[in-house]
Amino acid sequence: MSSQTAEDAAELRVLVVDDRVPHPMLGAGSPRCRSIVEALSKAGAAVTFFPTLVANAPRAGLPFADGVTVHEGLVGENLIERLRACIATTRPDVLFVSRPHNMQTIRAALPTEPGTAGPRIVYDAEAIFCQRKIRKGQFYPQVMNGLDPDTLLAEEVALTRAADLVLSVSESEADLFRHHGVEAAVLGHCLRPRQRVPSVKGRADFLFVGERADWTSPNTDSVLWFIDEVFPRVRAALPDARLHLAGHLASEAVRRRLSDVVESHGEVPDLRPLYDRARVFVAPTQFAAGVPYKVIDATANGLPCVLTDLLLSQMGWTHEREALSASEPDAFARRCIRMYRDDRLWLGLRAAAVADIERTCSEEVFNLAISNALREVRSPISHRGSDLSGDRVEQRDGAGATERPLSSGH
């Protein structure tokens, strides 16, 4: 932790508001949330974490170091009243808020009288959630139900006007905020690549990590597509290859497709043994938003990836430099076969991808972004005002997404 970050956080009281306590087994933004809390705490801020989904919040084995308080609630309590009570008790200088529906709750909980002093608000956009819904609508038209994509995006961005600072997970999504008149800084992920991982020799099979829930979830959709459309083509060229699935399995459609060549390992507390044995990581996701943490995690564990063009773009990567990509079944299968067979390609892609993770996801880069955010919100000028009492934006699919097991949904 840099001395500058510590100086910026010193004596600050920070309340972090997100869906769930970010346990290691949770994905969907949980690893990044945990990194934010840890960075603030190590810098000397007094951090309280407020989970809005009380009924489903894990109660034991808190993932934070000593010094971080978790504000537990009771099932059935009024969320807004509980949040108001927490704010009154902790008297935060800064609120870190993630996800649109939690921003709506903050707007409802804070006083709106002119001149009323309140905490500075940092809206942390680990994804622009409507982007996932819009892309999902391309595959499942009923999801959009006549909704206008531009309107959805404008509504989600409008929520953030109540914030003093907006943080975005990537430069491309930050540009979307800027296009709609909201300045945004970038705060990516924080992950250190493993220093010693097995090389290509002795590895075998393909690995997918992600929870498979209902049939329209991104992970279930992508696994079914890969098993039905891609893997038969792969097996025609690589008859001994198997597919390993890690993560909670709730989808009967996926369960029916398990066999001696498609194996589900369920929730896996430590993915490293699977990473070390697999030869290729597949990320066939067709609709998503933000930055795919599953790809970052696989890369940090020394496993190169074949992914869709969408995820390649979200990573800011180039085909044949950090990974191989395709979006059509036949092309995706060819990429899988090529990476599986070509040791030199495998090693080159892995080296380039790991170098990118070291550059973009380093602790130093992450802490600097946190330091800059704290310095910004400690400045005496705030643009926030009557926005706190602005019109409520309707909660829609995607805006209320919750964490999934890390071995299952990032």
Automatic annotation (TrEMBL):
<feature type="compositionally biased region" description="Basic and acidic residues">
    <location>
        <begin position="384"/>
        <end position="397"/>
    </location>
</feature>
<feature type="region of interest" description="Disordered">
    <location>
        <begin position="381"/>
        <end position="410"/>
    </location>
</feature>
<protein>
    <recommendedName>
        <fullName>Glycosyltransferase subfamily 4-like N-terminal domain-containing protein</fullName>
    </recommendedName>
</protein>
<dbReference type="GO" id="GO:0016757">
    <property type="term" value="F:glycosyltransferase activity"/>
</dbReference>
<dbReference type="Pfam" id="PF13692">
    <property type="entry name" value="Glyco_trans_1_4"/>
</dbReference>
